[in-house]
Specification:
With 662 residues, the chain is an alpha/beta fold. The chain has 23 helices and ten strands. The chain has a five-stranded parallel β-sheet. A five-stranded parallel β-sheet has the order 7-6-8-9-10, with helices on both faces. Helix 3 runs parallel beside helix 8 (198-205), helix 4 packs antiparallel against helix 5 (124-137) and helix 17 packs across helix 18.
Length: 662
C-alpha cells in the first residue's frame, strides 16, 4: 500500500491517466446510444412523412379536382368536344404549363416529381426539407377555380338553402372531404404550343396565402340579418369564359406579356418605395384593364354569398369580357370578336337563374371602356364587338370603367389605381400624409397631344402649361418615353400639385383622374362626360365640392387662361375642395380581397351597393307592371343627373350626332 502510494506520488500522470480513461469511455458510450436512437427514429420519420405526403396529396386532389370536373365536363358538352379530351386520370403526368397547374392543383404533381428526383439524387435530410417547403406552398395555390354544378348538386343546395361555412384551422382547410358524385378526376388538356416563361408565370401562380380561404360557400351565416336583401350568387361559367383566358395570359396582348399583371389578385407586381413617394405596403403596378380579375377575386370574398340562387338578390356573371375582346381588336382574326360573347349569352339563356327575371337581376364587369363593346355594324373590321348591344346584355347591369351617356344598362366604376390597402389604418395613414403635403405647383398635366383629333384641347393645355413656367408641372407623354408609365413618377407629380388637369383623351375618361385623387390633387375637368355623367355611385352629385369645371370650348375658342381661372379660387375654397378629394380616397381604391377594409367602403363595396339598389328598383318596377320598352335612352345622362329631359347648357357636349372621341 505504501509502495503504491509512493509510486503515485512519484508518477502523478498515472492517476490522471485512469481518470481520462473512464471519461472517454463514458463519452463514447453516450455518443453511441445517441447515434443509434437518431438513425432508428429517423427511418420511422421518413416512413411517416411518406404516409402523410400521400394522404395530403389524395385529399388535395380530391377536393380541388372535383371542383373542376363539372366545369370541364359541361364546357365540352357546350363546345361539342369529345369527353376524352378533357376527362383524364389525375395519376398521369402534370401539365407542362405551370399556369395549367395553377387552375387544376397540379403543383402537387410537380412536387411529387421533385421528391422522386430528390430521393434518387440527395440524402434523406434533403427530402425532409423539400417536404416542408412544398407543404407550405399549398397556401399559394389559387382558390378552388371555376366549378360547373351538376343538377343534383344544385337541387341539394336548394334543399339546404344557405350553406353554412365550417370554420377550420388554416392547416385543416387544406384537407377537404371528397364530395359524392365526383368519382371522375378531370384534367385540363395541355397546350404545348405556349412559350414557357417560368419566372413570369410563377408570379401569376403564387397568390398570397390568404387566397386559399376564398370559396364559394355562403359567408354570412353568422349575421344572417345583415345579409337580408344582399345575397349574391355567382354563376359557375365554363372555363372558356374566364379561366382559359387567365391561363393563356401570354396571348392577351399583341405587344406585351400581360401575365405579370394577373398576379396578386390582378393587382400586378408589388411596387418598391425606394423614393419614399408611396407608403411601404399596399402598392402595386396595376394595369388599368385588370378590373375583371380584381372584381372576381373581391366577389369571392363577399360576405353575403350564397350557393342557392333562389335566395340571391343579384347574380354575378364572371365573364372576362375585356380580356376576351382585347385579343381581337387589332389582329387579323377579327371574326372572333363576337364568338365568346354570343356563346356566353346563349349559355345564360339556358340557365334556370336567367329565366326567373330574364337576366334583369344579373350583373357583370367589362373591364374596358364601353365603346369596345358597342360596335353598331356587322362589319368585323369596325372597332369592338357587340356584347353590350345584344338583347340579353341589355337586360343585365354591366359595370365598365367608362359608360355610355345614352344607354341605361352600363354603369361606370373607378379605374383600378396603384393602391390596394389591406386595412383601414393604411388608408387613414395615407390620407393624413396627403393632408400634410406642401404642394409646389398650382397645376399639372400628364399626357400627350392628340394631333389627329381636331377638336382636342390637349395641345392647348400643353401650351398653357409651358407658358405658366414655374406654376405648372408638365409630364409630356411622347412616343418612346416611359415616364408616363412609371407609377412613382406620376404619383410624385400629382402629390406636388394643387390642381390636376384631366382633359378627354382617346375617350371621355382617364385613369389619371383616380391616380390624382389618390394623391389629394383636385381634378380639373373640361367635359362633363369625363366624370359627372359617369361615376354616379362614387362621386358626389355636387361636382363643385371636389372638382373644377372649365368647358373645353372656352379653352379652344375663347382662349380662357387656366392659370388665371385656378389662381382666382379663394384659398379657403381650395382647402375645402382638397379635403373633399382626400375623403373620396377610400371609394377610389380596390382593397386587398384577402383582408379588406373594416369600417370604410372601397370602390367594390360602393359598386355592390349600387347594383343591389338598381336590381331592387327593377324588381319593384316589374311588380308595378312597368313596360321597359318605353324607356328613351337618348337622355339617360340628363335624367340621372338632373331628373329631366328638358334643355340644358351641357346638351352640346352630348350631341350624339356629333359624337367625338377626344
Amino acid at each position: 500500500m505504501h509502495d503504491q502510494e509512493g509510486l503515485m506520488k512519484k508518477v502523478p500522470i498515472l492517476k490522471r491517466g485512469c481518470n481520462k480513461f473512464w471519461y472517454f469511455t463514458v463519452v463514447f458510450l453516450l455518443w453511441f446510444f445517441l447515434l443509434y436512437f437518431f438513425f432508428h427514429s429517423g427511418s420511422k420519420l421518413y416512413k411517416k412523412d411518406d404516409f402523410l405526403l400521400k394522404h395530403h396529396y389524395d385529399d388535395f386532389i380530391d377536393a380541388h379536382e372535383s371542383s373542376f370536373g363539372g366545369v370541364n365536363r359541361n364546357s365540352n358538352e357546350e363546345t361539342g368536344h369529345a369527353a376524352a379530351d378533357s376527362i383524364m386520370d389525375m395519376d398521369t403526368k402534370a401539365t407542362a404549363n405551370p399556369v395549367d397547374n395553377f387552375f387544376t392543383g397540379g403543383d402537387w404533381d410537380k412536387y411529387l416529381r421533385e421528391v422522386s428526383n430528390a430521393e434518387k439524387e440527395s440524402k434523406p435530410e434533403n427530402q425532409i426539407r423539400l417536404t416542408e417547403n412544398e407543404a407550405r406552398s399549398i397556401n399559394k395555390v389559387f382558390g378552388e377555380g371555376n366549378r360547373e354544378e351538376s343538377g343534383r348538386t344544385r337541387s341539394a343546395a336548394r334543399e339546404n338553402q344557405v350553406k353554412k361555412p365550417i370554420e377550420l384551422p388554416r392547416e385543416a382547410r387544406r384537407r377537404r372531404v371528397k364530395k359524392p358524385g365526383r368519382e371522375k378526376r378531370v384534367k385540363k388538356q395541355v397546350d404545348h404550343s405556349l412559350r414557357r416563361e417560368d419566372k413570369v408565370l410563377e408570379e401569376v401562380i403564387e397568390q398570397p396565402n390568404k387566397e386559399d380561404q376564398i370559396s364559394r360557400q355562403t359567408n354570412s351565416d353568422s349575421h344572417p340579418e345583415s345579409c337580408a336583401g344582399r345575397y349574391i350568387y355567382i354563376h359557375n361559367l365554363p372555363s372558356r369564359f374566364n379561366g382559359d383566358l387567365f391561363r393563356h395570359c401570354q396571348s392577351l396582348n399583341e405587344w406585351s406579356n400581360m401575365c405579370p399583371y394577373l398576379s396578386n389578385f390582378g393587382f400586378g407586381p408589388r411596387l418598391k418605395n425606394s423614393e419614399r413617394t408611396l407608403s411601404n405596403t399596399g402598392w402595386y403596378d396595376t394595369n388599368q384593364f385588370m378590373l375583371e380579375i380584381i372584381f372576381h377575386h373581391k366577389m369571392k370574398q363577399y360576405r353575403c354569398l350564397t350557393n342557392d340562387s333562389s335566395l340571391a338578390s343579384a347574380i354575378f356573371v364572371p365573364y372576362y369580357s375585356g380580356l376576351d375582346v382585347a385579343r381581337y381588336l387589332w389582329n387579323a382574326d377579327k371574326k372572333m370578336k363576337d364568338y365568346y360573347s354570343r356563346h356566353l349569352v346563349k349559355w345564360l339563356r339556358e340557365s334556370p337563374e336567367w329565366k326567373r327575371l330574364w337576366g334583369r337581376d344579373h350583373f357583370m364587369v367589362a373591364g374596358r371602356i364601353t365603346w369596345d363593346f358597342r360596335r353598331l355594324t356587322n362589319n368585323n373590321n369596325d372597332w369592338g364587338n357587340q356584347l353590350m348591344i345584344l338583347p340579353e346584355s341589355r337586360n343585365m347591369t354591366v359595370l365598365t370603367i367608362e359608360s355610355s351617356p345614352w344607354n341605361n344598362n352600363d354603369f361606370a366604376v373607378p379605374y383600378p389605381t396603384y393602391f390596394h390597402p389591406s386595412g383601414d389604418n393604411e388608408v387613414f395613414q395615407w390620407q393624413n400624409r396627403m393632408r400634410r403635403l406642401k404642394r409646389q405647383f398650382l397645376f399639372s398635366f400628364a399626357g400627350g397631344p392628340r394631333p389627329d383629333l381636331p377638336d382636342s384641347i390637349r395641345s392647348d393645355i400643353i401650351e398653357q402649361c409651358q407658358a405658366a413656367r414655374e406654376k405648372c408641372l408638365l409630364l409630356e407623354c411622347i412616343t418612346g418615353s416611359s415616364n408616363c408609365y412609371e407609377p412613382v413618377n406620376l404619383m410624385k407629380m400629382f402629390q406636388s400639385s394643387t390642381f390636376c388637369l384631366q382633359p378627354p383623351g382617346d375617350s371621355y375618361t382617364r385613369r389619371s383622374t383616380f391616380d390624382s385623387i389618390l394623391a389629394g390633387c383636385i381634378p380639373v375637368f373640361f367635359h362633363p362626360g369625363s366624370s359627372y355623367a359617369q361615376y354616379l355611385w362614387h362621386f358626389p352629385r355636387d361636382y363643385t365640392k371636389y372638382s373644377v369645371f372649365i368647358p373645353a370650348n372656352k379653352i379652344k375658342d375663347e382662349k380662357v387662361s387656366i392659370e388665371r381661372t385656378l389662381s382666382r379660387i379663394p384659398i379657403q375654397k381650395v382647402w375645402a375642395m382638397r379635403e373633399e378629394v382626400i375623403k373620396l380616397i377610400p371609394g377610389m381604391v380596390y382593397a386587398d380581397p384577402s383582408h379588406g377594409l373594416e369600417t370604410l367602403k372601397d370602390a367594390f363595396d360602393l359598386t355592390i351597393d349600387g347594383v343591389l339598389e338598381r336590381v331592387e328598383k327593377i324588381k319593384m318596377d316589374i311588380k308595378a307592371g312597368k313596360n321597359f320598352s318605353e324607356d328613351i335612352e337618348e337622355y339617360t345622362w340628363k335624367k340621372i343627373l338632373f331628373g329631366t329631359e328638358g334643355k340644358h347648357e351641357w346638351d352640346h357636349f352630348f350631341d350624339r350626332s356629333k359624337m367625338i372621341m377626344y
